[in-house]
């Protein structure tokens, strides 16, 4: 099985098990997203809700960005295109992840052998992503990240991210999201 994972067998494993004959992995052909709850289940395992706090030249000195995304092996590109289309016929770009227009795209990296579906456009997140997952909820720990993501979205919507107090609130929320969540410590 490990032979068929993204990076294959290490040289040490090949030496330790020289008689292993790998079996080719069958090609998966993506057809369609079966239903909206399937997306919620997929996101529960393979996507992330992130809040980015970066330096800025504004008067607060910080910029807050919401990011919803999924990064998979390049062979899964059609699946990400399917999810993208499900959310609204988004464009596909080839090349690096550092493209200038990064509101909602699929980025493909031949070098890294992966692809990234990412949405950072605030109005798209507020009007499409959050309502979708409110209606078709994520089950499990990822739902806690989504709840925090929504809290930050609400603070941004209310322009609180433009104040020192708002930045402090957002920073406190971010410090308990994803792998930093208390449940994992």
Return residue spans where pLDDT drops below 50 for at least 5 consecutive residues. 89-103
CATH fold-level name: Endonuclease I-creI
Biggest β-sheet description: 5 strands, mixed
Tally the structural domains: 1
Examine the secondary-structure arrangement and name the CATH architecture. Answer: Roll
Instruction: Give the strand order, joined by hyphens, for the main sheet.
Output: 1-2-5-4-3
CATH H-level superfamily: Homing endonucleases
Order of helices and strands: HHEEHEEEHHH
Q: Any idea what the radius of gyration is?
A: 19 Å
Look at the structure and give the mean pLDDT: 83
The secondary structure category is alpha+beta
- Give the beta-strand count: 5
Distance between the termini: 31 Å
Strand content: 15-25%
Q: Outline, from the CA principal axes?
A: globular
Number of helices: 6
Estimated helix fraction: 25-40%
CATH class: Alpha Beta
